[in-house]
């Protein structure tokens, strides 16, 4: 069984580090001339993968925009994840789950177990019931060679209210404690399967990721104001671990497949 880290590194080496979000937002569906239902979502999501699936290393489907259409939307998400795998790309399912006990066990089984209909290469999770509450997801990810991205310093401005608060008896912030906890777990397991979600929209991160030993997913590039050109200054020595995630800046180029591919190539030409 290959590790998540090795599969991701291989994909990035071959295709660059760009992560393309698949967000079938109603506004984008309409802009593409598609119906705002599961049929439109399927045409949208699978066209994105078909257009750039062999050029992009990582795709990040946003689960909420599939879930809103009920069971039909979830079925589309299953097919989209299968398309991503068939294209040889890595899937990070953006679900931001976080709970305790048997509920967290169930979330982990839903997204990280071999053979699960919604199994992805990696998922996003929220640590705000305590970093340790996510252990079921960490355990299953390690067992099945998958990844987990923990929200640490998110792209939204409201996040700082919690993430930059001082962390109990520790000298640092809540975000820093999450970063350090993830780094310790990676060092203990040697798999480096635990990543971070750190937004690229900040002038200053307010935390230190320079020595982090896992992948860093960086949303907020493009439509939210983050710029790829700013990432070296923001992430410093950790830049080689960064996956800049671009959604609407790419998706807005559709529905023409050639235009989608051209936009992806222009972003990859910057150096990612």
Mean pLDDT across residues: 94
Structural class: alpha/beta
Strand content: 15-25%
* Percentage of residues in helical conformation: 40-55%
**Whole-angstrom Rg:** 18 Å
- H/E order of the elements? HEHHEHHEHEHEHHEEHEHH
Total strand segments: 8
The largest beta-sheet arranges its strands as 1-2-3-4-5-6-7-8
Euclidean distance between termini CA atoms: 27 Å
CA-based shape:
globular
Low-confidence stretches: none
Number of helices, where a helix is a run of at least 4 consecutive DSSP H or I residues: 12
Largest sheet: 8 strands, parallel, barrel
Task: Describe this protein's structure.
- By secondary structure, the chain is of the alpha/beta class.
- An eight-stranded parallel beta barrel has the order 1-2-3-4-5-6-7-8, surrounded by six helices.
- The chain has helices at 4-15, 26-31, 38-52, 64-67, 70-86, 101-112, 135-144, 160-163, 174-189, 231-235, 248-251, 257-268; strands at residues 19-22, 58-61, 90-97, 122-125, 147-153, 194-198, 216-221, 242-246.
- Helix 6 packs parallel to helix 7 (135-144).
- Helix content is 43%, strand content 16%.
- It is globular.
